[in-house]
Amino acid sequence: MEVVIVPDAGAAGDLVAEAMARLLRRKPDALLGVATGSTPLPVYRALAAKAAAGEVDVSRARICQLDEYVGLPAGHPESYRSVVLREVVEPLGLDETCFMGPDGSAEDIPAACERYERELAEAGGVDLQLLGIGTDGHIGFNEPCSSLASRTRIKTLTRQTRADNARFFGGDIDQVPRHVITQGIGTIMEARHLVLLATGEGKAEAVAQTVEGPLSAMVPASALQMHPNATVVVDEAAASGLKLAEYFRSTYESKPHWQTI
After folding, report:
1. Strand, helix or coil at 234?
2. Pathway it acts in (predicted)?
């Protein structure tokens, strides 16, 4: 696992956006897996700016979704489909047809999960999957004790995760759905490149457990230790719990290898 410590959230966004741009220059129809929440927003803004400046052609890029709430009506502004369309697809000037995700409003949720697994496989797999991390170490919505071999499935959210997401629902935890469809850890691990992005002191403990702790179902993100091409990008605050922080800083200063491949 490569760990890159950057000065702040803006620098993190620029770095990850450049990795995506390099991928698209090499493979114009690359499938980019995106995450929601506030942490990846600098990435999407930086990538849109590169596209607007003519630094990268995103016209053939494909976008896929990591997870989706169950039970929100179609078009709900906080459904993850709506969020990805609003924050990623539209700013990049892409057509909605480039975008795939699980159907959280389907009558048969297990069938919808299986269908999304097939769609990802038929698309050739994810080239770069951007991940956030929860304060409890979850990735996607794979909460602690999720199977490290899990596939796309329905999950029940912990109260902590619902509380973390209440800010998107007017601060009312009761408005946050209790269930989600999420790519499983096994599904996530099939992406060719995993990039975990974390900023802020609130993520410091989870980052330390992910990078320096043991492989454990209690910290689902620790599964990235087993991936052959995983990069963790953190700002100084999120890196504050790392014992090897000085070593990782030298990695950034010498330019991480994934910027040049």
Report:
1. strand
2. Amino-sugar metabolism; N-acetylneuraminate degradation; D-fructose 6-phosphate from N-acetylneuraminate: step 5/5
pLDDT in tens, 114-173: 999 999 999 999 999 999 999 999 999 999 999 999 999 999 988 888 998 899 999 999
Is 143 among the catalytic positions? yes
Per annotation, catalytic residue among 18, 67, 68, 127: 67
10-68 pLDDT tens trace: 999 999 999 999 999 999 999 999 999 899 999 999 999 999 999 999 999 999 999 99
Domain ranges for the chain = 8-197
Annotation says 95 is catalytic: no
pTM attached to this predicted model: 0.93
Which of 18, 68, 103, 138 is the catalytic position?
Answer: 138
Catalytic-residue membership of 114: no
- Half-sphere exposure of 212 toward its Cβ, with a 13 Å CA cutoff? 15
Q: Which of 136, 164, 193, 235 is catalytic?
A: 136
* Given the residues 143, 164, 193, 227, the one annotated as active site: 143
Tell which CATH classification among 3.90.700.10, 3.20.20.140, 3.40.50.1360, 2.40.30.110 matches the domain 8-197.
3.40.50.1360
Q: Which of 46, 80, 48 is nearest to 64 (CA)?
A: 80
If we measure between CA atoms, which residue out of 70, 65, 77, 71 comes closest to residue 40? 65
